[in-house]
Amino acid sequence: MQNFQTIQGINLESTTSQLKIFGIEKSDNLFKLLDLIQGFHPIFIENYKLENNTLTISSKLPTLWRESANTFRKLSKEEITYKQAKEYVLDTIIKQKIKSMSTIPLLYKAHELGYETTLTVSDEGIIPGVIKGYGYVWNRYYTVGCGKGSEITCSISSTKDSIFGMKVQRDKWATNKLIERMGLPIPKWDILSTKKDIDKIWDQYKKPLVIKPTGLTGGSGVTVDIDNKEEAYKAFDYALEKTELKNRSSWQKKIMIQEQVEGHKDGSDYRLLVINGKLKVCTKRIPAFVIGDEKQNIRELIEETNQDPRRDISNPSHILKPIIFDKPLTSFLKKQGLTLDSVPSKDKKIYIRGIASMSKGGITEDFTDKVSPEIKIIVESIASTMHIFALGVDIMCKNISKPLTKENGAILEVNSMPESYLNFFPTIGKEQTEALSYYVTELLKNNHTKRYVVIGQSTNDIPTLLRKKKYLSENENVGVYKDNKILINNCEFNSNIKTWKAVEALKVNATLDSIILQYRDLDEIKKHGLGFNKIDTLFVTKEIKTNKNEMKILKKYKRKRYIKLIKTI
User: Fold this and answer.
1) Of the candidates 556, 525, 558, 553, which has an alpha carbon nearest to the alpha carbon of residue 8?
2) pTM
3) DSSP 8-state class, residue 490
4) CA distance to 135, 184, 187, 257, per residue, from 194 (Å)
5) Domain containing 244: what range?
6) What is the largest CA-CA distance in the chain?
């Protein structure tokens, strides 16, 4: 007997998919874990209940809980500890299948707007990444929408991003060459093949300088405020050390030297998010800092700052990162004549990072309404030229409201998979949820696949019948699920397939103009659900014996617009 049951899409109990896990004992530790997950973000668990040894979880991401079913069962029976269960669910299932706060709000917004979201590559199990050291990336691809015009996302990156743009953005050398080709402002720069190159070009550069790897992200290997050769040598060694931590490609190992642009000293570092060629959000990134209280030293102030629940990285929906104690932090303090044991005066702001990276503990502030027209044109031009649907452009300047002249600042780099949560959910200023809606609707503006559900049997072939009634055109590609079979344009492709697997298979098939799910009767609906989060037309055949109470539920869903139309055929 199967130990869980997937009730997919809206159903006779809920407007949200349900997973029923059998053989569950009442357990305080189980409830503790479920409450923890539910508290992370509503996308994970809308609600849950335990009745008659059956745990029912309502969630639009039922795949997470199918994979967790055995863990929940073992925890409820005390066959594993709370710690073991928590580590597996958080570090294996959630982390490897949804990853980050850049993914969560996009999927959640898609659900709010009535779109389907389906894991693209995997339906069960965890697939190891094909590149050693790069994690379980293949579990993180989601098809948003369904059928023709659907798109695949991984975080904010999508199938609307060109392969050219993806290759250019990952390499700061290639990015700089393209920006120069476009005649846009960029700081003077060179590639350092060896440490000796520093001596050759040193007098050609205005100080201070930045040295960084061309192929790493998140501020890794970056050193700023370099104003003498000794510091430059150390910075080169540090960048080289970071490139050699993993087995990397040659393009990732190049090291760049660059003039540090104006604006750095006051932390005027901005991430501008361009979506489908339009600048939608501008966020100022502020380096990590602490505020003195005349009592605690800098180490203690950092530890106190890290207690902020928004910095709890065990929560997949965190929007801030903890401040990590490392060599660049202590070196930056040393330049200010400080150490971790220094006690700042009351209300004294002490910057503890030289770079405004979120991954290094920085915070953010919304500046969307303050961007100059000239800068807006620049970032939109770069994104459009690279053919990247959602591009993060990093700019450092004195004043984001003025043109990007050499005196005001310059473009630093671009990223096709930026941590977009920092744009959507700034620490200071208003949340940019409208930009989230814009991303999803623009991504799926060509997704018009019809979602039909048929309850009951018919002597007529359903696609033929719907063509006669003008619901389908003659030239449409039509995918059908009925009697545990997948049919496409009346050709049978699979049989004896589980219902939820068949439904998901049709959703990720990008050839389909219409998808039809046919169920025998209302009992089958009770068992499997209606399959979709939103239905264009629900057909009930004349042969079916209707249950008034259950039909009343379906009509309620129509009033709430989960179902557009209910028709008898």
Assistant:
1) 525
2) 0.89
3) T
4) 31, 28, 21, 11
5) 188-259
6) 88
Average pLDDT over residues 194-203: 92
Residue type, 345: S
- Domain edge (last residue) among 234, 259, 284: 259
Q: How confident is the model at residue 130 (pLDDT cuts 50, 70, 90)?
A: low
What's the token pair of residue 435? 């930009």
How many CA atoms lie less than 13 Å away from 450 in the CB half-sphere?
21
Of the candidates 259, 315, 229, 295, the residue with the CA atom closest to the CA atom of residue 44: 315
Same domain, 377 and 503: no
220: helix, strand or coil: coil
Confidence of residue 410 (pLDDT cuts 50, 70, 90): confident
Residue with tokens 């005390």: 78
Same domain (yes/no): 251, 274? no
Is the separation of the CB atoms in 183 and 195 below 8 Å? no
Element (H, E) at 384: helix 373-386
Q: Model confidence at 354, in pLDDT bands (50, 70, 90)?
A: confident
Q: Is 68 in contact with 59 (CB distance < 8 Å)?
A: no
Which among 398, 433, 392, 395 has a CA at the least distance from the CA of 415? 392
Domain count, the chain: 5
Query: What does the pLDDT look like over 63-112, one tens digit per residue?
Result: 999 999 999 999 999 999 999 999 999 999 998 898 778 899 999 999 99
Segment (H or E) for 515: strand 514-519
Q: Are residues 410 and 288 in the same domain?
A: yes
| CB 36, CB 86: distance < 8 Å | yes
Q: Is residue 387 left, alpha or beta, with left meaning phi > 0 and alpha meaning psi from -120 to 50?
A: left
